[in-house]
Amino acid sequence: MRAWRNLGRFRSDSAVSTWLYRIVTRRCLDVLAARRTSEYLDEDVQTTATDPSESAEQRERLQAVTRAVAMLPAEQRAALILREFESLSYQEVADVLGTTVPAVKGRIHRARITLLNQTAAWR
User: Fold this and answer.
1) Residue range 2-41+59-122, CATH number
2) What per-residue confidence (pLDDT) applies to 94?
């Protein structure tokens, strides 16, 4: 609805998809700022492991990473998810978040360092 209502504000200097990502991302960040979520990603994990202990270990690893991602500051989490899970370029992430490419790279770097430290026990 926001995109439709603000269609007149769309500037052709970026792609429509980038503009829509920006609207959705800003809305998500606003919701997160209003309340801190404690929900995690769906725990249904398809695994190629045949050993039940390997499956359980993979599930625990996924849960640990999911918790670590959920605990990241909103700006770092948004940048990381847009880049790694949505496969946006650094420039597209910067456009969506309304910041610069160096700022996006810094946020992603800090997020990765935090995730590495929080999941060190699994390596």
Assistant:
1) 1.10.10.10
2) 93
